[in-house]
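Troubleshooting: if your tokenizer reports a length mismatch, compare against these two reference records.
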Amino acid sequence: VQLEESGGGSVQAGGSLTLSCVASEYVPYMGWFRQAPGKERHLVAQINGYDDLYYVSSVQGRFTISRDNNKNALILQMGALKPEDTALYYCAANPSWVPQPAAASEYKYWGQGTQVTVSS
């Protein structure tokens, strides 16, 4: 499975960005992770084939994860962005069950990452 992210960029605090990830085939378990320089990769949000959602508390109410199964696409709408949201954002996918929340090690397939930079 190949994953290709797009939509990163630079915005000011309070702004919005939408990330997209297109998979080469349908994969039921998908998520967004982020990694800041010098830090570990952490889960941001995830969704499964039943549309069960999970958000890390720091983005709850500001980010929305969704999927378009017709396009094998995963979307992350990010609003009220903060400088601490600055990171390299990765799309992840796994063909079999992963827990909610899932660690990065639970996911088999990864995109190349897209940079999000939020300035104060």
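Reference record two:
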Amino acid sequence: QVQLVESGGGLVQAGGSLRISCVGSGLAVSSYAMAWFRQAPGMERELVASINRADITNYADSVNGRFAISRDNNAANTVHLQMNNLKPEDGATYYCHAESLWPDEPDSWGQGAQVTVSS
């Protein structure tokens, strides 16, 4: 059974940094396209950053140059999102996502990590 567990969320002042992590079990994160999404209250969930199986990364325009996605392709089996120069509008619940490998297999989501940025 695939499980994704996020950690590292919290409260940070604007301009500060935070790193959130996602530990995978039941899957090897190196074999999946992984991503971070976020959802603020009353807003739709949006893609923040992704890393494909070839380790090519992609970022939303709003975070490009400030956020960095990476993963530990070892026993840690973890995906990270380093967030720098945080802005109040970055505050949201951040979700880890693993894209399924097979057509009949659902994507996997973590439970979410809350990030709050004070102005």
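Descriptive notes for reference record two:
- The chain has a mean pLDDT of 96.
- The radius of gyration is 14 Å.
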